[in-house]
Amino acid sequence: MSSISVISGKSSEDLAKKIAKKIKADLIKSSVKVFPDGESKITLSGKISKRKSIVVQSIYPPVDSNLIQALSLISKAKEISSEVITVIPYMGYARQDREFLPGEVVTMKVLAKLFKGVGTSKIIVVDIHNLKGFEYFTIKNKNVTAIPELVKYFKKLRLKNPLIVSPDQGGKERAKEFAKEFDLEFIALEKKRDRKTGKVKIKTKSVDEVNNRDLILVDDMISTGGSIINATQFLKKQKCKRVFVACTHALLMNDAERKIRKAGVTKIVSTNTIPGKTSLVDVSNTIAKAIK
Predict the structure, then answer these.
(1) Which CATH architecture group holds 4-145+283-291?
(2) Of the candidates 234, 255, 236, 232, which has an alpha carbon nearest to the alpha carbon of residue 245?
């Protein structure tokens, strides 16, 4: 028996298994029973280590259920282990990290209190939407990036004179980091989002440098795919060749994958922070290093 337990939440079973293997820990699985009223009851199988536990649970939809389950698992682990490391591969609510409009609740502030309250010693997140979200945490926190693993995947593809593109100015640093790791150039488009309606428009007029080149659109997450669709339609008009999408977290809500493909994207490549058809890149190694 190992002196470390990896407790797997239902939303991250495969990833938790891979992490446990990499750090040579015992894997403890959880089963969830959902009652007719929507409450969930979690049962763990296996003996939790007294020394250290690592809880792995992504907070993707259903966000509130997965969050409550994560908090419950941490709380249970803390009853037995003296140290509990929480791994939230995809941090739901990370976009609610400030008051954009008067009266809005900054939910990341609430989460910071909850994770501390249930007994987390340290929290590890993969490509958090904005590091500002961590400003509310008083526990140790670490953001790790999936960019090197994503780049490794794209290096294996036969791309024609590739160029890295950020769909907006907000993701400029991410695209720059991706391009640096790949030893390529990058550009960032300008978009405008209406805070009330959520509608997105591309403000960039034209980009000659995309002509006849394969493009990799880089983003941290894709929810409904609005930004990616707009960017792709705009880039296709500029006579680029193929458009690929690289992102860490592919939520792909409301039939987003089909809509993105229809806009002209050849392939969407995401990581296993959220399991799905597009999660072709494994981040267990990156997380295992952060735990060690």
Answers:
(1) 3-Layer(aba) Sandwich (3.40)
(2) 232
Positions annotated as catalytic residues are 191
Looking at residue 218, its pLDDT comes to 98
- The pLDDT tens digits for 1-42 are 679 999 999 999 999 999 999 999 999 999 999 999 999 999
CA distances from 67 to 61, 74, 86, 98, 215 (A): 9, 11, 12, 20, 35
Q: Mind spelling out the 3-state secondary structure of 81-109?
A: CCEEEEEECCCCCCCCCCCCCCCCCCHHH
Please choose, from the candidates 218, 213, 208, 209, the residue with its C-alpha nearest in 3D space to the C-alpha of residue 181: 218
Q: pTM of the entire structure?
A: 0.94
The hierarchical CATH code for the domain 147-272 is: 3.40.50.2020
Return d(Cα 75, Cα 225) in angstroms, integer: 35
